[in-house]
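call fold(seq) -> tokens
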Amino acid sequence: MIKLTHPFTEEQVRALRVGDAVEITGVLFTGRDAVHKYLYKGGELPPGVDLSNAILYHCGPVVIRDENGEWKVVAAGPTTSIREEPYQAELIRRFKLRGIIGKGGMGEQTLAACKEHGCVYLHAIGGAAQVLAEKIVRVRNVYLMEQFGSPEAIWELEVRDFPAVVTMDSHGRSLHQEVLEASTAALKARLGEG
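ret:
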């Protein structure tokens, strides 16, 4: 298990390879469809949000107020990442992101941006939203809540030993693409087309 601590450096990220299991400690920012589209169209980050050398988590957490009035994340599973493919490469370039966490993988534009700018795609476990929420030590802040609503807001989360697996690295490898190609070849062979 490779330990990653915020802020994440390009050197750390470029040392990662497809298949590496990591545990992340430090700060993660969430961002889903509304935030990606807003930033892609030229929207500015709110004061206090610095995505440089950071990891953006494709997640719409379920967040409640506890008995002290503090935010508490009760579920924080990854959302399907491919929806952000039209925007992700530009956000990696513009904000110098070092990592993206989600599920299901992303496409060629994101893979190329990861290679060019030193970023990785990390796969989080789908269906384990409560387990992943337990890795969130506290909510540091929330941004754009009024504009986008709770699931689409940018949540600044402090995490400890948050688990993920590198499935797209900064060397041009995509486990998602490799699995698709192998599956397609196996299907063609079974159908007698290979």
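DSSP finds seven helices and nine strands in the chain.
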